[in-house]
## 1
Amino acid sequence: MTCIGIDLGTTNSLVAYFSEDGPLLVKNALGEYLTPSVVGLADDNKTLLVGKAAKKRLIRFPDKTRSLFKRSIGTNSEFSLGKKQFSATDLSALVLSKLKQDAEDFLKTEISEAVISVPAYFNAVQRQATKDAAEIAGLKVCRLINEPTAAALANGVLDRENESTFVILDLGGGTFDVSILEMFEGVMEVRASSGDAFLGGEDFTEALAKHFSEQIDQDWKSLRSQDKELLLSVADQLKCALEGQNRASATVKINGISHNLEVDNDGFERLTSNLIDRLYRPIQKSLYDAGLRAEQVDRVILVGGATRMSAARSLAAKVFRKLPERNIDPDHAIALGAAVQAGLIKQHTALDDVVMTDVAPFSMGIEANHRENGNTVHGAFAAILERNTVLPASRQQYFETARDNQTKIELSIYQGESAIAKDNVLLGKMTVPVPPKPAGHESIEVRFTYDVSGLLVVDVKVLSMNSTVTTVIENLAGAMSSNEKKARLKALEKFKIDPREQELNRALLESIKHMYEVLLGDDRAYVMNLLGRFEAALQTQDPQKIEKERAEIEKAIEQIEANFVRH
Amino acid sequence: MSDTETAWPWSVLGLKDTCSDPKDVRRAYAKKLKSIDPSADIDGFQALRYAYSRALKITQNNQDTQDSRSVSQGLPEIRTPTNDNTYFPPQPAPTPTSDGSKTVELDQEIDSSDYSIPENFFKRFNELTSYKKTLTLEEWSPLLSSVALTDPVVAQRVEWMLQENLAKNIGYYRSSINAAKLCNAIDERFGWVSDGIGFLKRYPHRRNLQATVSTIVRQNAWRFEERQKQIFTPKETKIKPVPATYWAAAIILYFLLLAI
């Protein structure tokens, strides 16, 4: 049975599979590899739109369209689509089921298993929510793979003979990850991973959009959400235009006044310098954890769409004193790598001599008092399994009772890097009975065993009694039960999904209307004309005529989109 | 000592002899690794991985004796696996070049304000640390945001110097808002609070400093949020005219109160 690889991104998502010729991407119904991670409600309030059609409605229907929900996965935030409430897990499930459908359509087989990539710096709660989303979408998760590790697999499989140390800098739409890997003799070993779960290309876009709102004398917070989305969309287009040029501008109308918005490379770098600064720390942290100096890295590989920004590229060059590489399209690498991992799990013959080991991206441990020179630090975090330990791993530490005649020890298990336990993510709790004795006279051995699939087993042994208490932390406290998942699936199934053959028409209609909203004056009239032409063609219900018109109008819209940004 | 003990770590890797080339160690490890299933035999995998990291370290030390990063060199082997990370010994701070009394005026005279050059950077750094009261964020921020810090070697040295200095002046830091700002900036750069575990690994003897800095940063978190807001909206907020309905409501309330 085929297991697919999915890159569930903040901005865009992709799906790939492992074939005889290596990993291959799957095109969606629109013939595109990238499916925007956007979900919206159509005008009838019954049909759910996922992907490009929904993205093109962001400006016109901000209350019925949701994007960037990956940033909130694992939290309790609710997103409204019209009057209906959705969680980030629900919305992710909708994107996943769309990708599943695309793969099934392409491979002509039913698919029920997937490897899904998550940012290396996602914590256990965020990982669990991603798994839940997949199960709602009818996909069993064979493995969650860290995004930079996936990118490394995609790059490493291309070049299996070489012995090298390389670093992957993965700046996606919403997250930043750094991984350092060593590759030799078909072994791919992740040495260290680090990152920032709240830093990505969308932050750069937002900084630019906020700058524009200031320029046109509008307070960002009191802008109407339509105008916010319009500024964000224009900022995104200008940001992308800066990749090849030094200057870009466009004209938009806000509150009835048209404004010329302009940005050049220097200005953009100044606006985003505090974001660029935040890229340094994860890089230094992972170099330190890997025990390497920057010059010991042979190759620097950039993945994630946001690494197209020149500031990100020059930062990489500055730190590593090397020209960064982009052998594979930075948007594609993660999905391709997830497909390689799927191939590894299914023991594909083409991958016979490839082994990959990954690391734990976070430290795991318990809350304990720390005594030093007569001072006691209460509620300190004792890390038992340190971050960047090669997995699978099993480590133990010893603790003793703190009070006289203590009858039980309560263990709170945390994940994170803060020296204060409560600032980390709580994974679970357990209680161990101990015989009453003077303080410090009873000891326990706490053993953490963590495997590649993210399963943490905690064994506690009371040394004087030789008794063991075991807790398996598989599902976190916040995880959904299978009944809950079924209920969510039922709720989501109530919505209509456009039939596949309608998707092309729907996407084009929404693209035309989107351009109409963005443009001014004569340009607007021209787009109106296109809309009329296409609607007339749709009315004929003649597939050939519709296809012919669609092709021509698509070309015209593409041209208009390109002309919108001036260089 | 038995034969198997002398052969560790080589025997675990399936090597008959000690070897001196890291390449051979890698090859042996790869071969062994492919013959086991790590998830089924965690202990076996850990023993193999640990033997590999030790063997690699030994061969690398042989190859490059100048490599000063390994502090375990010459020490007896550790028997139980702890972790695979190398510890960077902090490099000693350069001795201050000028005497402390003149340093504050100095920075206006010399044209060495380009802190991207490590030499200027450390000069200024020593000036600041030798004069106690200049420890404010305004004075530090040109240094903390300098490109010189993109060099990990410089960054490590700076972190070492900072923690030495802060530990010495810990009383001052407890009481000042300037210190709170500085601690926050240091955390943004070096993660002393957000990555407290990492900090304590680098400086195990600085648990007190870590606790103090954590408290300072946490207690002042709201101030930094304020600062963030100021950064994002630097313009003065305009005072909006109060809508007439509000006035009307206020007047009615006033009369109601009078009536009571």
## 2
Amino acid sequence: MKTYSRLHAKLSQGKFVVTGECGPPRGANKAVIDKKIKLLNGYVDAVNVTDNQTAIVRMSSIAASAHLVAAGLEPVMQMVVRDRNRIAIQSDIMGAYSLGIKNILCLSGDHQKFGSQPDAMNVFDIDSVNLIRTIKDMRDIGRDMSGFELDVAPQMFIGAAANPFADPFEYRVIRLAKKIDAGADFIQTQCIYNVDRFKEWIRQANDQGLTENVYILGGVTPLRSAGMARYMKNKVAGMDIPEEIIQRMDGVDKKNQADEGIAICLETIEMLKEMTGVHGVHIMAIEWEDAVGRIVNQAGLQ
Amino acid sequence: MITGSQKPINEIIKLVEPYKKVLILGCGTCVKTCFAGGEDEVAVLSSALRLSFKKMARAIKIEEQTIERQCENEFIQEAASGVAGTDAVLSLACGAGVQAMAKRFPKAVVLPGVNTTFIGIQESAGIFTEECSGCGNCGLATFGAVCPVTRCAKKLLNGPCGGSQKGCCEIDPDTPCAWHLIIERLTTLGQLDNLRTYIPPKNWNTSLSGGPRKLIREDHII
């Protein structure tokens, strides 16, 4: 079987993979990327590079991904449809592949209303499902959206996001199926705190045979403090943090809260490792990259 | 209908200040229905302007008139004498009305007194909601008559996104998630299977993206 990236190869060999996350800096400072590379290198199989996440302007995900490639780390380049029309999207995908970027995660993108420049016009020419299909058609048929035959077509391992915690819940598995049909090879989920709801979602996906056709990486984010937990619960779109988790964080001394957050994260990973239909974990240690090594070691994921 | 809301009074004062005689011209159809530019709003705005200019000791004469529609020549004609005797027209019509007036009276200064907002409906007394963006290629049949192009903040055709929670859009808890509504409607109609089908990228050529649009009805051209 042809594999498109090292991440793909490991998943196809049945390894329980670990992906991390690298948020590019708000500026042109490559040293920030280098520092995050150092913290993640050797602990993860691939690193997601976010694309102007929360609609705050940052170094481009393509450039930051290229820095990772140069350092020998495999990026999963995130791409949102918020900021580019189909012309720019296809062009950027070709450019990214030419720079050695072999994994891509297709996203709608946080609405610019949340960001640092809410006056901006958004694009949303195509949606994230259209983006998946576009990359698949480039890869498998070798043509761009106009039908033009590409001399070298990007051959990327295609990812998509799933949020089992958004509503309407009954529709979430239908949407997952739609993304798989469109061409998603792997799925990275929203951060899991509501374990019961995740279990129910994966059960439905297993029942419908979806997990045989796609690799699912469960998302986790270690909580650094009770304040962060509360902020995420109330302010971050699509986040579901049960009250028990908040109380558990509140229940320990401030100086021990980060340890408690890592403990919660490790428990979630243990559960994911045992779960049918889950093929890996996606650790989003937001601006806390030095926690990743510890989590990976303690979870026995190396 | 086309909805709009009157510009803030201070902005209007700045617009009309350079002129000695101003006609406040209302429009008796859409903007009347949304309380932005009908006869009543013309009267209230005119009084407010007269008072403001009096306080500023400025001698600006304010005239009032409302015609049925500023977007149709047949009605625009009724404003001809009023326009002729004035330095500037402050139109309380939508942007189409303002431009139609300027086309019909090429030498007249025509100023906008209303911010045109959207194509919508009055959902309940005093609450207007956007329903259509005039994309020129209606897909409402697929979506249970709820438009994702207009009512989803991300224009998703294969929605909903991960920000939909408890029926609300991630941008604002007071904004219903269009995709939640679509799923509810299609469930009621027994047509939820509409959504299993992949919906390809939209052809925006019929929308404003294709450039300013023109509707030609050959059978009505004389």
